[in-house]
User: Fold this.
Amino acid sequence: MADKSIVCYRIPSAPLPLLLPIECVAAVVEKPVLEALSEAPTDWMQGHLTWNNQRLPVLSYASLHGAKEKPQKKAKQTVVVLNPIPQAARKAYSALICQGVPEQVNVKADSTYAEIPGEIDKRYVEAILEQDGNKYIIPKLAALEVAFSYF
Assistant:
């Protein structure tokens, strides 16, 4: 069992990078054209993205935790399109803005869980995974679905 691993996307974000199984990700869009919201009620609402003829809400996971999005050059901005969340009431695609370019990584079966630091909002965190000295957030998909429903 120790030789098994799960292929995930490591998504650059704050306060820690996110880990999502590849089955959760429909696409990675580099240089996306985002439609800004005329009046965003919160910082984490980043706007909308048209993808496959669908208008998707774009959320900043970092801003959910109170972090400010780092200004990025247009060439480096990336969005991850999420598949509809299983068991969610709203069966729709959605998207997360990234603070860099996502990459595929293998999460080893012998990775360990760490305690969620106090400065991280636990409402949006399923777990903190530690592998090879690095920590990653496994986001709580049900909580993200609720956040997306505000768009």
Remarks:
- DSSP finds two helices and twelve strands in the chain.
- The radius of gyration is 15 Å.
- The chain has a mean pLDDT of 87.
- The helical segments are 61-64, 141-148.
